[in-house]
């Protein structure tokens, strides 16, 4: 009998039963006040008169009118460079002990994002929020006694000017609570291995020594790790190694494109739970099984605003027009794309994280990630967000009985005009013209702007198949394997030329 598991499950269920209904809107108002009050004596707080904002009749409105939008370049040039140099009290009280390195999906030079103690506490609380939400998923008691494989970047953080830096998953894993260490795998020693391939090989060698009940990490790298374990032990699926595996916490990107290829590695379906963790914070997690949408965590040191994702508000490079209007949580509508804006306990203020989201349930504050501001395919008026592209690929998988976990495309200019040029990652090659027709017809039916574009400047669709391994090799050549690294779904023409050159060299 799972005695400890029953105790843990009982505590979780009791907490859930005793918890009061809360208002996300009111929680957000409280968070904003707390952020402004704590940072009012920083250099940023003094320049933008946080004290006066706190005295205003409508704090949310006064805040949005006083503070400009910031992307990473703007806030770093004007403020965070001072923090990086070691100056205290710039955008948040004190100095951060950590910096999260993030190359995003396009950047070659890593960003250095402050990670304060308050942010680490926020991430820990969000993790507890996720654990307590498990009461809604009806997991058996023995699940709570199993080990958790957290596949992130290396926890061997680098020292620089007295601070530690690494990817956020490595920073978080290096700061896990002591009581969690008995459940945490691959464990401190393996997690510190810098080389991704060496780390995964070590996981494979030790896999049979662990009783893994849950996985956590970005889908693309999780799949590669599971394949390595399966191949190393020459078994048919991962449940032959970890028979008690029952859940996977996905994060960083939408899980939908990976669903078919991921399930092929299992003996039976497991519970998939989506989360939204970025270098700038832990924003949302799925807290009920009826939906894959994620609930914004609205009481945890992060204040959210939303800018309607309209062409007149978003510049070609993904930045926002200075006069782009923002709205608060009480004003959002369902099924509308918004650019997500955050203000946080790490001293990010009205920060454009670069993601677009849509609300699946306004009352519950549940969202889905719909794409990236830079990756919105609109070169010739097609207005395709990444979630629409994901839907098209999922449809293609069903039509062709094929697995396509990775893809990228570009609105590329050919001699006779623009085409959407797709590269599909699959170890099973199909008829390219038939595939292009299926994609084209699906998108015409699913998106009226695409259909209009196809009658004008957009001439058609071109398709190429490449091995799945090509995408991880590309990421490895351009950045670093594992961790928070994600594949660009949409590329500009210059970047796409680099990709095509890489593919031709590897072929």
Describe the structure.
Helix content is 36%, strand content 22%. The N and C termini lie far apart (55 Å). It is built from 17 helices and 18 strands. The longest helix has 17 residues, at 117-133. It has an 11-stranded mixed β-sheet, with helices on both faces. A hairpin with a 2-residue loop joins strand 16 (406-414) and strand 17 (417-425). It has 2 domains: 1-374, ANL, N-terminal domain (Rossmann fold, 3-Layer(aba) Sandwich); 386-506, GMP Synthetase, Chain A, domain 3, CATH 3.30.300. It has 507 residues and is of the alpha/beta class.
Topology:
Blueprint: H1 3-18, H2 24-39, H3 43-47, H4 50-54, H5 59-66, H6 72-84, E1 98-102, E2 111-115, H7 117-133, E3 147-151, E4 158-160, E5 163-166, H8 168-174, E6 184-185, H9 188-191, H10 196-206, E7 212-217, H11 219-233, E8 247-251, H12 259-263, E9 271-278, E10 281-285, E11 294-296, E12 302-308, E13 338-344, E14 351-361, E15 366-372, H13 386-400, E16 406-414, E17 417-425, H14 432-446, H15 448-454, E18 458-466, H16 469-478, H17 493-506
Helix pairs in contact: 10-11, 13-14, 14-15
């Amino acid at each position: 009998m799972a005695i400890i598991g029953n105790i843990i499950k009982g505590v979780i269920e009791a907490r859930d039963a005793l918890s009061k209904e809360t208002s996300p809107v009111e929680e957000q108002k409280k968070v904003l006040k707390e952020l402004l009050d704590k940072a009012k004596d920083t250099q940023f707080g003094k320049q933008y008169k946080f004290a006066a904002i706190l005295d205003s009749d409508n704090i949310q409105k006064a805040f949005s009118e006083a503070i400009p939008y910031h992307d990473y370049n703007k806030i770093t040039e004007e403020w965070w460079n001072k923090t990086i140099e070691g100056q205290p009290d710039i955008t948040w009280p004190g100095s951060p002990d950590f910096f999260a390195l993030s190359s995003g999906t396009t950047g070659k030079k890593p960003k250095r994002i402050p990670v304060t103690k308050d942010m680490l506490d926020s991430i820990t609380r969000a993790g507890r929020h996720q654990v307590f939400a498990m009461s809604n998923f009806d997991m058996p008691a023995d699940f709570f006694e199993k080990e958790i494989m957290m596949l992130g970047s290396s926890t061997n953080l680098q020292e620089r000017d007295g601070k530690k830096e690494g990817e956020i998953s490595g920073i978080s894993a290096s700061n896990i609570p002591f009581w969690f260490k008995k459940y945490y795998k691959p464990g401190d020693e393996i997690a510190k291995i810098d080389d991704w391939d060496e780390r995964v090989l070590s996981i494979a060698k030790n896999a049979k020594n662990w009783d893994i009940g849950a996985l956590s990490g970005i889908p693309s790298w999780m799949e590669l790790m599971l394949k390595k374990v399966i191949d190393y032990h020459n078994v048919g699926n991962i449940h032959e190694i970890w028979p008690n595996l029952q859940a996977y916490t996905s994060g960083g990107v939408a899980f939908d494109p990976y669903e078919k290829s991921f399930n092929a590695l299992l003996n039976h379906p497991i519970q998939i739970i989506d989360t939204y963790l970025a270098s700038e914070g832990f924003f949302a997690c799925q807290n009920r099984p009826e939906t894959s949408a994620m609930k914004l965590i609205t009481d945890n040191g992060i204040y959210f605003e939303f800018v309607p994702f309209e062409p007149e508000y978003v510049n070609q490079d993904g930045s926002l027009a200075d006069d782009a209007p923002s709205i608060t949580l009480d004003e959002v509508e369902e099924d509308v794309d918004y650019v997500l804006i955050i203000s946080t306990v790490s001293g990010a203020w009205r920060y454009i994280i670069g993601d677009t989201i849509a609300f699946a349930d306004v009352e519950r504050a549940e969202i889905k990630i719909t794409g990236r501001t830079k990756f919105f395919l609109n070169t010739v008026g097609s207005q395709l967000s990444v979630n629409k592209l994901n839907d098209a690929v999922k449809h293609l998988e069903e039509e062709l009985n094929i697995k396509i976990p990775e893809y990228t495309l570009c609105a590329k200019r050919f001699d006779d005009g623009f085409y959407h040029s797709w590269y599909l990652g699959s170890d099973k090659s199909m008829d390219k013209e038939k595939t292009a027709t299926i994609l084209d017809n699906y998108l015409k039916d699913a998106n009226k702007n695409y259909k209009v574009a196809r009658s004008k400047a957009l001439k058609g669709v071109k398709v190429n198949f490449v091995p799945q391994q090509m995408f991880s090799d590309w990421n490895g050549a351009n950045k670093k394997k594992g961790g928070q690294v994600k594949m660009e779904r949409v590329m500009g023409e210059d970047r796409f030329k680099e990709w095509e050159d890489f593919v031709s060299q590897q072929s």
